[in-house]
Specification:
By secondary structure, the chain is an alpha/beta fold. It has two domains: about 190 residues, DHBP synthase; about 80 residues, 3-Layer(aba) Sandwich (Rossmann fold). Helix content is about 30%, strand content about 15%. It is built from nine helices and twelve strands. Strands 1-2-6-3-5-4-7-8 form an eight-stranded mixed beta sheet, sandwiched between helices. Strands 9-12-10-11 form a four-stranded parallel beta sheet, covered by helices on one side. The longest helix has 16 residues. The radius of gyration is 19 Å and the shape is globular. The two termini are about 25 Å apart. The relative contact order is 0.15. Bound molecules: threonylcarbamoyladenylate and magnesium ion. Magnesium ion binds next to loops.
Length: about 325
């Protein structure tokens, strides 16, 4: 494997250092408000290929393109009035829009896996925004974890996942803790391809229309939606009231545990803690983790989605 990164990476200390790596066609992980991203210049096919190599990700899985603002995003995709309304309301923020790709844009075909659509977002993290602006180009960035593993919400988790071989711009812990919500905009129809850190209810309240789910019999339109995607080493048992012998317990609200996602039952706090706490229990070497029930409203939809994937039979 010719990973386009040194055997032991030196972390960039400043945004300028990180930008220099990216401009030179190398990878650099950077913080966003959701999870850390493994960034590459989205116009450079060789750089983007090294993302797939580093992650061990199936080639067909397209990447999210990160922009510094709506103006940069509009150079890459066709924005309908509905798409623009969503972008203006929720960017910078944890919303990814899947839109028709403009023809003749400089984006590497590899970022979109040959699709005629493109997934775009403007992240709400000052370092990410500064980094994209300094590079002056859109950045392709999937979550900075080896494929199939938990998404990292701190720089140290990124280093652990890639055994220190990928440089990381450290921006502290992520505030949202689960990935962005992915919405496809096709004509007047909004379809949620992935539940995420922006709740369906907030989107529906803004636009005054329903956000649909992908048709059950449709081909997988967001490959991140493959079952068993977010998998810790330990087996996961959901909707548990208490731990069985040999299990660690991840609590929520009044259901206490080894650790608790949110003792007060706050879903934002639980989302922020989800991957970090699963990682924390996983790193103890425990064989199984029981997880307290999480309500399905608001951010609970995304949390339950990630937990069901973590609990799914392993492929
Ligand atoms: O919060 C996030 O979204 C994080 C941070 C780093 O921004 N990024 C992230 O990216 O989760 P990634 O690459 O792990 O997830 C990308 C998802 C995949 O499920 C992929 O299939 C879907 O976006 N996707 C990308 N382009 C698409 C397209 N044109 N049509 C449908 N789905 C697309
Ligand atoms: Mg991911």
């Amino acid at each position: 494997m010719s990973l386009n990164a040194p055997a032991s990476a030196i972390d960039p200390k400043t945004v300028e250092d990180a930008a220099a790596l990216l401009r030179a066609g190398q990878l650099c992980a950077f913080p966003t408000e959701t999870v850390y991203g493994l960034g590459a210049d989205a116009t450079d096919s060789d750089a983007v290929l090294s993302i797939y190599e580093a992650k061990g990700r199936p080639r067909f899985n397209p990447l999210i393109i990160h922009c510094s603002d709506l103006a940069m995003a509009e150079t890459l995709a066709e924005f309908s009035p509905l798409a623009r309304t969503l972008a203006k309301a929720f960017w910078p923020g944890p919303l990814t829009l899947v839109l028709p790709k403009r023809t003749g844009v400089a984006l590497s075909d590899i970022t979109t896996a040959g699709l005629s659509s493109v997934a775009l977002r403007v992240p709400a993290h000052p370092l990410a925004l500064e980094l994209i602006a300094v590079v002056g180009k859109p950045l392709a960035a999937p979550s900075a974890n080896p494929s199939g593993r938990l998404s990292p919400t701190s720089a140290s988790q990124v280093r652990l996942g890639f055994a220190g071989r990928v440089p990381v711009l450290d921006g502290g812990p992520c505030s949202a803790g689960v990935e962005s919500t992915i919405i496809s905009v096709a004509g007047d129809t909004l379809t949620q391809l992935r539940a995420g850190a922006l709740s369906r209810e907030e989107i529906e309240a803004l636009v005054g229309q329903q956000v649909l789910d992908p048709a059950k019999d449709a081909a997988i339109t967001a490959p991140g939606m493959l079952l068993s995607h977010y998998a810790p080493n330990a087996l996961i048992r959901l909707n548990a009231d208490a731990a069985n012998p040999g299990e660690a317990m991840l609590g929520f609200g009044k259901v206490s545990g080894t650790i608790n996602l949110s003792p007060s039952g706050d879903l934002h706090e639980a989302a922020r803690n989800l991957f970090a706490m699963l990682n924390q229990l996983d790193e103890t070497g425990i064989r199984a983790i029981a997880v307290a029930p999480i309500p399905l409203d608001g951010l609970g939809e995304a949390i339950n989605d990630r937990l069901e994937r973590a609990a799914a039979p392993r492929g």
